[in-house]
Specification:
Elements lengths: L1 E2 L3 E6 L3 H13 L4 E5 L13 H6 L12 E4 L7 E2 L15 H4 L14 H9 L17 H15 L7 E2 L2 E2 L23 H12 L5 E2 L9 E2 L5 E2 L21 H4 L10 E5 L2 E8 L2 E8 L5 E11 L3 H11 L22 E8 L14 E4 L21 E4 L23 H10 L3 E8 L8 E9 L5 E6 L4 H20 L3 E2 L47 E3 L14 H19 L8
Parallel strand pairs: 1-14, 2-3, 2-14, 3-11, 4-20, 14-22
Antiparallel strand pairs: 4-5, 6-7, 8-16, 9-10, 12-13, 13-14, 15-18, 15-21, 16-17, 17-18, 19-20
Length: 583
Amino acid sequence: MERLKAVDVVIAGGGWTGLLMAKEIVTRTPLSVLVLERGAPPRNYLDKMDELDYSIRLRMMQDLSQETVTHRHSTNDRAAPVRQYGPFKPGTGVGGAGEHWGAVSNRYRTDQFRLATHLREKYGADRLPENLAVQDWGITYDELEPYYWTAEQMLGVCGQAGNIGGTKIEGGDPFEGPRSHDFPNPVHKGGYFPSLFRQAALDLGYHPFPIPTATLSRDYRNPDGIERPACMYCGYCAHYGCMIGAKAQPSNTLLPLLRDKNNFKLQTGCSVRRVIHREGKAEGVTYIDASGQQKLQPANVVILSSWTISNVRLLLLSGIGEPYDPSTTKGTLGKNLTHQVSLDVPVFLDKPLNLFMGTGGLGFAIGEFVADPVGSDPSSGVLRGSEIRANSNGTGPISSFGKIPSGEVQSDWGPEWKKAALKWHDKAGQIVAEAAHLPYRQNFMDLDSTYTDMFGDPLVRLTLDWTDHEHRLRASLAKPMIELGKAMGAKVGAAAHQNEGHYSTVYYQSTHLQGGAIMGTSPDNSVVNPWLQHWNMPNLWVTGGATFPQSEGAAPTLTILATAYRAADAFVNRYFKKPGALA
């Protein structure tokens, strides 16, 4: 194995948080930073936007034939590998999932960051589910708020504030935490389908607000000096990189600030395999380069900034931390695996909706059902919920064809089906929820004992299943979603996945997996401290969704960026000046 020249900081993963940490360290210190990305260099998105290539064949996602995960519902079951993209779609290449994301840019609710305390105060510890594993984050919303604002400015988020300094603003989300500033950019032009949802929500007494999105409503220059043009509403956002750069992506907001820096280097085609460590100190990483050669990269600081599962896997493979044991609840590495609880209600209107036009996140949402959505009695079955929204993201001709109201035809093929599909084309929309998934002691990650990746290393095994809470949550959300559809004057279909018994690796649930290397208040209950520094290895840092103690009923990307900005500030202002444990 070739031993390379040492660098000050090596970062595994060239996505949102990897490039953000690199930018902050490179521009604010003299330290040398190397980012190792296993995927390809940045793409040229001007060449083509082909739905079959990107949305159906998933060109921008990881190759599951080289590395995947295994899944089982309980420790009594045998895990099987996930061979096709179903529940989530991890990206690859420079920018990672930040290149093909949908650009929804929510903040989390204030009580999410102290959720364990909040639920105990509200219900009493003895009235909560026995196996519930919610935790406080070790930070508060108020501590994170300045970094939310920094992230929103970097992205150029468009939206309508609902709470500035405690003053409620009509037209925004009245349930959001206090903001120090309004959004950097105004809301987009409204889409027709979301406008119908907004009016229905108003008629029913809800408080609809524009969904915050990182696709630009106007030309914008961010505080770093990055200029991007306004969105053209082409509809090619999720699954695609933006052709003109209107959607914020790591490759167009962060990478340009690094390219000409002498203390920065990005290497692609490099698969990090282990963190090398000795006596409580990380000494670098080993990786396999694009030619298949093994390399040892010494470094004074190691930052893991890959996707949730990849970060946890690197820690497990490297033997850093005590793996979680659900039978004893000892150990912290791998605990609190959460996803999101998705629910779609199809609606059909006898009029064209122009849903082929749009942009990522374009639409309206209501926030009445995010926190404590059913009431104060936990016996009602729901402790945490979701925003409910209607979008006009842009739908391609393949994915939008064939949506027909139930009972319209007797078969899902043939001339009658084709006739009905043509009749209802561009007249079918969805009301959507991506609900919070609470952590349970029985849901966790570890290394599989049977299946390996292309290099012979064990895959991550997900032990994950729904509980009664998730079933009741879907049922409770389906009621207002169906009610909203009817208020829009639509034919309303059955809520998708509402009655599904077990967690499925077939249906998409969002790419928002969280947990496994969670932050917290002590090494007894978490892997990293509130500054994302490893409790037992101060020169090892972990960023991203792996550090979240639980998920929320909203998109996590903005919170991922805000916590990374906070970690970067701690690194530059404290650790760089005096290396050592920050907590």
